[in-house]
Design goal:
Strand order of the largest sheet: 2-1-3
Distance between the termini: 87 Å
Transmembrane segments: 21-43
Low-confidence stretches: 2-20, 37-110
InterPro entries: Bact_Sporulation_Assoc, SpoIID/LytB, SpoIID/LytB_N, Spore_II_D_firmicutes
Structural class: alpha+beta
Number of helices: 14
Domain Sporulation stage II protein D amidase enhancer LytB N-terminal: 128-233
Order of helices and strands: HHHEEHHEHHEEEHHEHEEEHEEEHHEH
Mean pLDDT: 77
Helix content: 40-55%
Protein name: Stage II sporulation protein D
Strand content: 15-25%
Number of domains: 2
Shape: globular
Region (Disordered): 54-114
């Protein structure tokens, strides 16, 4: 082969090699580009998944005018009046409203191991210590149940109390009610102004060493088995009002307060009479003290000067004439510091003897009634459905959009 032909062959081979190299490089580049594009698309897709899931789980559609909007004037008027009551102490004035009442199926609103409430912190002002304690919401609920209901109550009654206590604080946090918490930065106090609360450090000290383990386990079970559950009416957490002992019936809200609340209706509560030590109480007052506390004239006062004008649906005194004045049953109860607004009386000499039936204002859940229902086999959801008419026990996840703002 001549030198010229060899040169021509080499050049041809080099050209072919160069073309193949560029084709190879182009192919590699194309593959890399496609891979990068696929990675970007995958990342975008992955990013969209949690965002979509969050939006789906956290978005709650509007269900019409909220309870707060419907009853704004009511809440303003009675913010200081709606308080919680404890069954065995003097804490008898408690906190401040679709489904059909639930049957015995307690699995309808089964609790979760965690809930949307787990991230919430409650700032509790400890009045005696004059400091704010910051605790997780479920820890707060435990302290309220321990303070508001005797530990020897049935487990299902304690669970009903836990759900009511949780409902109260969730509603308060969602509505941003802090104006009556006494101290800036506190959500609630540890008194009957809101809910009575016992910190863990004091809680363990109120029982003997032998009682402590069993009582703490029972209390913990009541909280754990209701974790995240609240009582709702038309999608809103209710005013979970409760009191110690009924006279056989609960009261309509408007018969004690001025506001008619659809789920606070008068219902029968026959269990209290048989089991509550607070059902009946008798006190005696000098007539001079009786007149002074009520601000009525003693002159011309006689037995006939006391006359019931009207009774409530819950069989308590609605209006009563005493001397020259007409009072509501609530006014007499509060002025004379009576246990209930259902009472009878007798006058003998310079003394008046008054016998009351029931303990507390009578609106919402009767704690001793709840214990009576539990003794008969009722579950927490059934107890709550009985005392809070046309309500539902639901997981707080249904309120997640509002709760997320507090987390």
């Amino acid at each position: 082969m001549s030198r010229g032909k060899r040169t021509q062959l080499v050049v041809s081979l080099l050209r072919r090699h160069t073309v193949k190299r560029w084709l190879a490089l182009f192919g590699i580049g194309a593959m890399l580009g496609a891979s990068i594009l696929l990675i970007k698309l995958s990342l975008n897709e992955l990013r969209s998944v949690p965002a979509a899931s969050y939006a789906e789980s956290e978005t709650v559609e509007s269900q019409g005018t909220s309870v707060k909007e419907k009853t704004a004037s009511r809440i303003t008027e009675t913010a200081a009046q709606l308080r919680q009551a404890e069954p065995d102490e003097k804490n008898d004035v408690n906190v401040k409203e679709r489904n059909e009442p639930q049957q015995e199926d307690e699995k309808a609103a089964a609790p979760q191991t965690s809930s949307e409430l787990d991230g919430l912190i409650v700032h509790v002002y400890l009045t005696k210590e004059k400091r704010i304690e910051n605790v997780p919401l479920e820890t707060y609920v435990r302290g309220v149940v321990a303070a508001e209901m005797p530990i020897d109550f049935e487990l299902e009654a304690l669970k009903a109390q836990a759900i009511a206590a949780r409902t109260y604080i969730v509603r308060r946090l969602m509505q941003g009610e802090e104006s009556d918490a006494s101290v800036h930065g506190a959500d609630v106090t540890d008194t009957i102004q809101h809910q009575v609360y016992t910190p863990l450090a004091k809680l363990e000290g109120q029982w003997t060493k032998a009682q402590r383990k069993a009582n703490m386990a029972k209390l913990g079970k009541a909280i754990d088995e209701t974790r995240g559950l609240v009582v709702t009416y038309e999608g809103e957490p209710i005013e979970a009002v409760f009191f110690s002992t009924s006279n056989g019936y609960t009261e309509n809200s408007e018969d004690y307060w001025k506001q008619q609340i659809p789920y606070l209706r008068s219902v029968e509560s026959p269990w209290d009479k048989a089991i509550s030590p607070k059902y009946k109480e008798t006190v005696s007052l000098k007539l001079s003290e009786f007149h002074k506390k009520l601000g009525v004239k003693r002159k011309g006062f006689a037995k006939s000067s006391l006359r019931i004008i009207e009774r409530t649906e819950g069989n308590r005194i609605s209006k009563i004439r005493i001397g020259d004045k007409v009072f509501t049953g609530r006014e007499v109860r509060e002025k004379l510091e009576l246990a209930s607004s259902q009472f009878t009386w007798s006058v003998k000499g310079d003394y008046i003897t008054i016998t009351t039936y029931g303990y507390g204002h009578g609106v919402g859940m009767s704690q001793w009634g709840a214990n009576g229902m539990a003794k008969e086999g009722a579950g927490a959801a059934s107890i709550l459905a009985h005392y809070y008419s046309s309500t539902a026990v639901e997981q707080a996840s249904k309120l997640s959009a509002q709760l997320a703002q507090r987390s």
